[in-house]
Amino acid sequence: SSHSAAVTALTTAIGLIHGAGSSEFAISVIFSIIVMFDAAGVRRHAGIHATVLNLLIEDFQQLIQEIK
Hints:
The chain is an all-alpha fold. 91% of the residues lie in helices and 0% in strands. The chain is rod-shaped, with a radius of gyration of 21 Å.
């Protein structure tokens, strides 16, 4: 996702400027992990919602066919 790309670029830039041993880099790594974990969770839940919506559409179409 674009958010993951942005925090990766931020962390890389901080690492290059301040070094991998700096506290700024450590904070940016933790921030990146949080953002990426959240993005993965959002995608997972969106997939679950899509599956449920597809099942509802199928059920609705079957109901329409039975009514005809």
